[in-house]
Amino acid sequence: MTQGVDTPQDAWMKCLAVLGEPQRLRILRALAEGEQTAGALSERLGVRQNTLSHHMRQLREHGLVEVRRHPHDERYTIYRLNGRRLRALSAVLMDWAARAETEIDAAGRRSS
């Protein structure tokens, strides 16, 4: 059996599902203040490193965060938000909202 290829809409739905986990939203909110090491995030959020790693893997796989190594010490991982991806996700949500508003407006005009 062949596995179907995700459509762009499927990819956005998966991103939203990933963001449905409260701990991941806390991570994004912390990263909105600037890039941080895994250790700093773990301490700030009060989560164990392995728990943080699990959530970061999900966020990375869906392109919501980016990762790089510390320039002076390769042992440290630094995370930051992927602003381009978040803006694109926001644009998808705005499009859905605009479509819903258009539908509501059209329904209101029909019932008048």
From TrEMBL:
Domain of life: Bacteria
NCBIfam families per UniProt: HTH_metalloreg
HTH hxlR-type domain span: 7-105
Cited Pfam families: HTH_20 (PF12840)
Keyword entries, A-Z: DNA-binding, Transcription, Transcription regulation
Residues in HTH arsR-type domain copies: 5-101
PANTHER family: TRANSCRIPTIONAL REGULATOR, ARSR FAMILY, TRANSCRIPTIONAL REPRESSOR SDPR
Protein's name according to its UniProt entry: Winged helix-turn-helix transcriptional regulator
